[in-house]
Amino acid sequence: MVLLACQKDSFKMTTNTSPTLNTKPKNEISYLAIGDSYTIGEAVPLQGGFPCQLTTILKDNGLDVGTPHIIAKTGWTTSELQEAIKKANLNEKFTVVTLLIGVNNQYRGESKERYRKEFKELLQTALGFANGNKAGVFVVSIPDWGLTPYGLESGRDIPSVSSDIDAFNAINKEETLSQGLSYTDITPGSRLVASDRELIASDGLHPSAKMYQEWAVQLAPALIKALK
């Protein structure tokens, strides 16, 4: 399990099963981001990932948001994220929880039925972290990795990858909306990598800080509305 807290100049990593989190000042908005490489910001500085960029936008809009805590790791599927959360034994409640998960389920060819079941369980986990407050949970769609340089060179059938990503997103959107939770669709923007390679990090697969900024900009209005 990896627990990260992004800071201006560095980040902290804890691997114990009972992490001690910073005590937040009174009235500070606490934020937990859970997911995989897209949440941890693989291949970009931690400050370039969407959780930290989102925090900056919220602060610029007068919201007292503390340092975001991130439980995520490159390669995690829904089941691996859930297992890591359980091992973390994290009992703190948060004002805001974001969830972005599923690309590795798709990449590994796991069934959509399994994804639906495990995603629904993660929604309940996110709600638990938000102390049952539906207005505090924000789900982000899975980006399309198929059109990245890595995807194009992978030997995969790219139209099939995109179609599969859409199918997984149809599931997470349906389950999210059925729970009355916020859903932000960043997938169409992720497909602009075909014409704008500045949206891709140096590894040719993961988003650049520029793309993460666009995700943060898309997410921000829903959070601002819920928090003000």
TrEMBL record:
Family matches, as InterPro entries: SGNH_hydro (IPR013830), SGNH_hydro_sf (IPR036514)
Occurrences of domain SGNH hydrolase-type esterase (ranges): 33-213
Alphabetical list of Gene3D superfamilies matching this protein: SGNH hydrolase
Coiled coil: none
One Pfam family, short name: Lipase_GDSL_2
GO molecular function: hydrolase activity, acting on ester bonds
Protein name (database record): Lysophospholipase L1
Gene source species: Pedobacter steynii
